[in-house]
Each structure stands twice: as structure tokens, then as C-alpha cells.
Design goal:
Elements (H helix, E strand, L loop, with lengths): L13 E4 L15 H6 L1 H7 L3 E4 L27 H13 L3 E6 L9 H8 L11 E2 L26 E4 L4 E4 L14 H17 L3 E4 L34 H13 L7 E5 L5 H8 L8 E3 L20 H14 L7 E2 L9 H4 L8 H13 L4 E5 L20 H11 L32 H11 L2 H4 L30 H4 L6 H14 L1 H5 L1 E5 L6 E8 L2 E8 L5 E2 L5 H5 L2 E5 L11 E2 L4 E7 L4
Parallel strand pairs: 1-2, 1-11, 2-3, 3-7, 7-8, 8-9, 10-11
Antiparallel strand pairs: 4-6, 5-6, 12-13, 13-14, 14-18, 15-17, 16-18
Helix pairs in contact: 5-6, 10-15, 11-12
The protein binds alpha-D-glucopyranose (GLC).
Alpha-D-glucopyranose binds next to loops.
Length: about 600
């Protein structure tokens, strides 16, 4: 099979649910599975095909559920397995599919596998994780005696010392997320068993958390120190030596020969286009598509907490390269938002009252008309914005809290390499990572307000009422006060709302094969305000235009007058443009259609 052949997910749209923040049915301030069931009609009305659930497994919730202590159950805070079965049945009854989050680069330190592994150096599960002694010649537990100089994604060393055995275990993320040792075939077969268990139960696939980090160079070498105190280990674990072998083995063990239309998507920080072609080439049997990170790092400076100005030309260069790189072989996923990203309308659009709806609908149009499978993150379809966090006590996310603590202590706290996939948490506001003035709390909070993952995690805004209709109790994280204006109830019947626009985009993909499968050509790569591209399938050609700004702008295409006379498929202004010329009003988007000499 080649990617020119149609598969069902090319014309599908996936909707991500973050269960903690979606809908709370039992009134404890935390979203749950029965809450999701109560909103399935809403999702069906939106028109999405697949739901991806962020983790709802038993977890100490150190990293909001991405630290799993039991892979085959439901955390009581979200409900029970019976609730899950009901959710799955109700999803299927509505003709949708359900995909689970597979978090197998690491477990929780409270998972029985790790507890056994930790119990003694001789335990049969000791080798299920990465245990190492101190650096040669150094005393175990002494400062700097960690086995490698790697930093963790959530600040500090990637190694945690275990007093009882005098050894350290590896954790690329929090110290409560020890990394599984995929070199051990028993680990792999236990993971495959678990995956089969869920597929047998009826789930339709997996979104695989940081799956390109499961193969580590077993030598675990030190990383280069470019600044600050930690080395960059990523060359030794991002798309490591056995990654393709492991994913092919997983396919053969778990997915091969199954009837049904499954979906697999690998989250892959640091993946390149060239690697993504290999991962998503259907003939190689690895995954259907990957989440790459380039376009969501374009506004990062030395790290995500040190933003730099966003340039539209960079976005076009990046997304254009991914479109071209996966045109013949492989497949793209398309996303602006997820539970780790700030809200796109606040980031690349304009979340002021004046332009929020226009810019959110323009951004949606540009994204959904690329070639690939679009992902909508809960609330994105309402144009939800970043939140006005006032003090550190308003944040809940471990990455944000650890960053704040390290920054306020004036410590180099993390990984030091610009462009590094997990990114540099070392150079703190007001310092370069190796000393200098202590940061100002206001600056640290400003950085968090702009970038924190909690921006994505405030409760879904269902109504203008108390707690945005999310819960009857005080939620685990505050609702955004703008729910009085921005909420589902106000939007679902408003033809000009962000919700209605997403609905139209999803319907377009379902109705027109060109949206799913047409060739993609980027236009105007040097223009800093107009995003323009064509799609083409046989003799049908579509032009997609987006104005990334609040000023009116001409579209300088050679065949502009021809396009201006073409059929307008969709736009985000209800009043027609009287000028007759091809120019865009503030944050306007348009899709035109014409027939060309057969292509
Ligand atoms: C992924 C998840 C993120 C989590 C991390 C560790 O990047 O999306 O939320 O913190 O992996 O599991």
C-alpha cells in the first residue's frame, strides 16, 4: 500500500479529550468518564470521527495521569472499567472511534513493576528499568555522582538516587516516572499483552506518548554541555538505535491481522521529516502518523519559557517542508493544540474581543486544509484562550511548578540545548544558565502565563454559568473567567461561531476527497502576512488563503484575478468582499475552487 491509496483516517478528524478538564458528572471538581458520555452528542454534532482520551488509568497524578500505576484499569477519580465500557459502547453507537493514550516510555514509580524492580538488586524485574551505580570514582549520592549528566524534561537531573540499593534510576520526565528498559524482551511482551487487552476490549487504537524515546543507547553516554549544568542526552534516546525494530515488533505482535480500522499515532519530540517518512511508510508497518514538534517550537528562544517573535515565514517553511517530505510516502498529523500547548488563538492569532473569532477560524481553516489528519483539542473548537493566571498558586502542572521553583532559586534547572526536543530549561530569565542576576518573579510568571501547559488544561467552557457548566464543585484548576462570553452553549447554534466554522471544516473533509488526498503546493513563501497554498486532485484545484494579521492585505498571486472570480467554498466573513480584487480583510480566510486543465 502507498500513501496515494486512501485509508479511512485520511478523511477523519480526531478530537482530543483531556478527561480531568472535560466534564465532571459526579461533582468532585474533576472531569470523569460519565461526564464524557454526557457530551457525546455535542461531539457528534461537531462531526469528529475519532476521540483520543488522555490517560484515565490509575495514577498518583504526579504528571496528570501520564504516570500510570496500573495499565488495565480506570482511576477511581475518573470512574470504573464499567464506565469505560459504557463510554466505548456509546462512542461506537454514534459511529465514532475511541483511541487511548499509550504511555510506555515510563511507568509511575508506584506501578508494581517498578516497586518490584526497586525492591532488590536481585529482583527479576530489576532490569525492567534503567538502574546504574554512581559515576566511577564517586560516592553514591554525592553531588554530581549521577551516572550521566542528562537533565530531565521537568527540571533537575534525569537520575534519582535510591538510598536502599545505592543505585540510581533513569527518569527523562518526573522522578515519579521511571523509564522502562525496552532492551528487555519481557518488558516489551508485557506492554504488547496490555495493548492487546485493550484492543480485545474494543478500543480503536493508540496515541503513543513520547514513543520515539523508548530505544536508548544502552551505553547511556554523557551528553554535550552547551550551557548550564546538564548535558543533552537526546542523541542517545531520541529515535534511538532500535526504535524502528521495536515499533515493527509492536505492529507484528499487536496490530497485524486484526480486523477493524485502527489508528496509531506516535508522539515524537525531535523527529525529523526524514525519520517520519520511515515511521509512517505503510510498507514498513510502524505507525500511521506522527506528531512532530517543529511548528510549535518556532516561537521558542533558548527554551519554551523564553519566547521569541513568531514569523509566519518560518511557519510556512516548516509546515511546507513536512507537506513535501510526506507527499509521496507517509502521512502527516495536523495540530495547533493539545494538552501540552498554550491555546493557539492566544499564540498565533489575536484573542482580543475584536479578532478572536476571526483569527481562530482563520487558523482552523489553514490547518484543516493541509494534507494530513487534523486533531482538535477540546475547547479549540470554541476558540478558548490562554488563562489569566495571577500567581504561582494558580498553576497545577508539574513542568510549570518545577520551572518556577528552579527559576526562583536561580538554578540552572534543566536541559541546555537550543532546539533540543525536550528543550532547555537551563537559561532562566535574567541569567544565561551559569550565574548572573536572580530572576524577577514577574518575569517568570509572565513566561508561564504565555507558555504553561495549564493554559490548555483549564476546564472546558460549556456555559456562561457557575464553573462554566463543567462542575458543580470548585474545579481542580480555575475556570477561565471569559467563559461568560466564550462557551459551547452560546456557540452551537450561532452560524458565525468558531464552533460552526469547525463543523464546516470537518464536513468539508468528509465531503471532498481533495481535502484529504489532494496534492499540496505552498505559495508566497516569503510573505510575512498571507498564508497561501493550493490543493489539487485531478482537474479540481482549491486555493486556501489566511491573513495572519489585523491589517487588510493584497494577495500578490499572478493569477489573483482569476481566483477572485472563482467559486468561494468557505470563508470567515459573511459579508462579501465588494472590491472584486483578491485581498484579505483582518484575519480573513478564504477557500476558492476552480477547474483546471486535467492535472
Ligand atoms: C508527553 C505528554 C506530556 C507528558 C510527557 C511525559 O509529552 O504529552 O503531557 O508530560 O509525555 O509522559
Amino acid at each position: 500500500m502507498t500513501s496515494s491509496q486512501a485509508t479511512w483516517w485520511q478523511s477523519a478528524v480526531v478530537y482530543q479529550i483531556y478527561p480531568r478538564s472535560f466534564c465532571d458528572a459526579d461533582g468532585n471538581g474533576i472531569g470523569d468518564l460519565p461526564g464524557i458520555v454526557s457530551k457525546l452528542d455535542y461531539l457528534q454534532r461537531l462531526g469528529v470521527d475519532v476521540l483520543w482520551l488522555s490517560p484515565m488509568f490509575p495514577s498518583p497524578q504526579d504528571d496528570a495521569g501520564y504516570d500510570i500505576s496500573d495499565y488495565t484499569d480506570v482511576d477511581p477519580v475518573f470512574g470504573s472499567l464499567a464506565d469505560f465500557d459504557r463510554l466505548l459502547a456509546e462512542v461506537h453507537r454514534r459511529g465514532m472511534k475511541l483511541v487511548l493514550d499509550l504511555v510506555v516510555n515510563h511507568t509511575s514509580d508506584e506501578h508494581p513493576w517498578f516497586q518490584q524492580s526497586r525492591s532488590s538488586k536481585d529482583d527479576p524485574k530489576r532490569d525492567w528499568y534503567f538502574w546504574r551505580g554512581p559515576r566511577p570514582g564517586m560516592a553514591a549520592g554525592a553531588p554530581g555522582a549521577e551516572p550521566t549528566n542528562w537533565g530531565s524534561a521537568f527540571s533537575g537531573s534525569a537520575w534519582e538516587f535510591d538510598e536502599a540499593s545505592g543505585e540510581y534510576f533513569l527518569h527523562l520526565f518526573s522522578r515519579k516516572q521511571p523509564d522502562l528498559n525496552w532492551e528487555n524482551p519481557r518488558v516489551r511482551s508485557a506492554v504488547y499483552d496490555m495493548m492487546r487487552w485493550w484492543l480485545d476490549r474494543g478500543v480503536d487504537g493508540f496515541r503513543m506518548d513520547v514513543i520515539n524515546m523508548i530505544s536508548k543507547d544502552p551505553r547511556l553516554p554523557d551528553g554535550a554541555i552547551l550551557s548550564g549544568s546538564y548535558g543533552d542526552g537526546s542523541p542517545y534516546y531520541v529515535c534511538g538505535p532500535r526504535i524502528h525494530e521495536f515499533l515493527q515488533e509492536m505492529y507484528a505482535e499487536v496490530f497485524a491481522g486484526r480486523n477493524g480500522q485502527l489508528l496509531t499515532v506516535g508522539e515524537m519530540p525531535g523527529v525529523t521529516v526524514e525519520q517520519a517518512r520511515l515511521f509512517t511508510d505503510p510498507e514498513r508497518h510502524e505507525v500511521d502518523m506522527v506528531f512532530q514538534f517543529e511548528h510549535v517550537q518556532l516561537d521558542h528562544g533558548v527554551d519554551k519559557f523564553h519566547p521569541k517573535a513568531f514569523r509566519l515565514t518560518d511557519l510556512k517553511a516548516s509546515l511546507g517542508r513536512w507537506q513535501a517530505g510526506l507527499a509521496e510516502v507517509g502521512w502527516n498529523s495536523l495540530y495547533w493544540n493539545n494538552h501540552d500547548q498554550p491555546r493557539v488563538v492566544s499564540r498565533f492569532g489575536d484573542d482580543s474581543d475584536r479578532y478572536r473569532v476571526r483569527s481562530a477560524t482563520m487558523l482552523a481553516t489553514v490547518l484543516h486544509l493541509h494534507r494530513g489528519t487534523p486533531y482538535v483539542y477540546q475547547g479549540e473548537e470554541l476558540g478558548m484562550t490562554n488563562a489569566p493566571f495571577a500567581s504561582i498558586s494558580d498553576f497545577r502542572d508539574i513542568e510549570s511548578l518545577n520551572y518556577y521553583a528552579a527559576a526562583m532559586a536561580g538554578e540552572g534547572s534543566g536541559r541546555p540545548v537550543p532546539g533540543d526536543p525536550l528543550e532547555d530549561r537551563t537559561a532562566l530569565p535574567g541569567q544565561s544558565g551559569d550565574g548572573g542576576p536572580r530572576p524577577d518573579e514577574g518575569e517568570v510568571l509572565a513566561a508561564l502565563r504565555r507558555t504553561s501547559r495549564d493554559n490548555a488544561r483549564t476546564p472546558m467552557q460549556w456555559t456562561a454559568g457557575p464553573q462554566a457548566g463543567f462542575s458543580t464543585a470548585e474545579p481542580w484548576i480555575a475556570v477561565n473567567p471569559n467563559h461568560r462570553d466564550i462557551n459551547a452553549e452560546a456557540e452551537i447554534d450561532d452560524p458565525d461561531s468558531v464552533f460552526s466554522h469547525y463543523r464546516k471544516l470537518i464536513a468539508l473533509r468528509h465531503a471532498h476527497p481533495i481535502v484529504a488526498r489532494g496534492d499540496f503546493t505552498m505559495l508566497l513563501p516569503a510573505d510575512e502576512q498571507v498564508y497561501a497554498f493550493t490543493r489539487q486532485l485531478d482537474a479540481e484545484q482549491w486555493l486556501v488563503l489566511g491573513n495572519f494579521g489585523a491589517s487588510e492585505v493584497p494577495v500578490p498571486l499572478a493569477d489573483a484575478s482569476d481566483w477572485a472570480a472563482a467559486e468561494l467554498v468557505l470563508g470567515n466573513y459573511s459579508e462579501p468582499d465588494a472590491s472584486g480584487a483578491l485581498s484579505l480583510r483582518p484575519w480573513e480566510c478564504r477557500i476558492y475552487r476552480r477547474t483546471v486543465g486535467s492535472g
